[in-house]
Write a structure and sequence with these properties.
The protein has about 350 residues and is α/β, with parallel strands linked by helices. It has 2 domains: about 190 residues, Periplasmic binding protein-like II (D-Maltodextrin-Binding Protein, domain 2, 3-Layer(aba) Sandwich); about 100 residues, D-Maltodextrin-Binding Protein, domain 2 (3-Layer(aba) Sandwich), CATH 3.40.190. Helix content is about 45%, strand content about 15%. It contains 15 helices and 10 strands. A 5-stranded mixed sheet has the order 7-6-8-5-9, sandwiched between helices. Strands 3-10-4 form a 3-stranded antiparallel sheet, with helices on both faces. Helix 7 links the parallel strand 6 and strand 7. It is globular.
Length: about 350
Amino acid sequence: MKRIFKVLVATASIMAAMYTGGAMAQGKGETIKIHDYPGLGNAMVRVAIEKGFCEKHGIKCQTQMIPSSPLGMQAMMAKSIDVAFAPSDAVNLAVQKGNKMKMVVGGNSSNILLLAIGNHMESPGVGKPFPAYMQDLKGKKIGVAARGSTVEIMASWMLEQAGMNPEKDVTFVATGGVPTSYGALQSKQVDAVFSYDPVGVICDLAKTCKVAWRADTDKVPAAMFATNGGVVNQVFMQEYIDKNPHVVDAFISAVKEADAFINNPANFAEVLAISNKYFKLEMPQGDAILAANLKRYIATGNYRAAIDRKSVQANLDMTLTTKQVEKIMPLSDLIYDKAP
């Protein structure tokens, strides 16, 4: 009996250690400033703040609104914030240049690039398998965020996969961000746009345009679909990680709790209320558009704390294929070894 009792006690101790391991990573009241951006933004951090998950793990999380990933990374490197919200390919480039940093936990997992086509354009390929809808674009004006941008590079790759010449078969037009891209499509300045939501959600709700392709749900081209799972992540400088490993681990725990909360369907109304507290879309049906956008992102698994290593590798491989970089770094140089 004594031996059995000792075994049970030992087993209980092991289980207790497993379930209370987060206590070892408790912060000590440290404040960390985290990159956020307009729109649905850094949703898991917003939820971690509003639901008290950061405080539960001994840290104070504060968001800093910065409109783009490059600016967020610059702010992190300048130490005006502690955490950047950045895509894996941008981290790869920064590390190549000698800036030591690591992705520590997920943020926006999905590749949210999409192709929307104006109702004024004939598009018999929409609804048919790839590459039919791409071939509809021949001779058309295609909107992209900026000339030479990653969006244009990905659009060009898609055209090439469809057997087309992006330099001869289409005309790219810089249409800026989501509002101006949608506006250019509606005013017929362009025939189609490669962009992001809420452009696609607006098309679906208003029936003013058609979504021909989404990178997060369409499995062809396979190399593009493979990028889903680790696209944009929370990034710390290596120096910060080395000095404050307990804070980083506490932050990971808080984000993991936010992941569980967001992905529980029973919490959707509260997650939407939190989102609306941080951002309002000032346009007709703005609230409905953001609600539909949030619902879609949750349904497609966009909010995940885990960093899918295969996805990160697929993203980096894509940058090599499209000649955005000459080499890619090992994942061990880019991802924190304790990242989920």
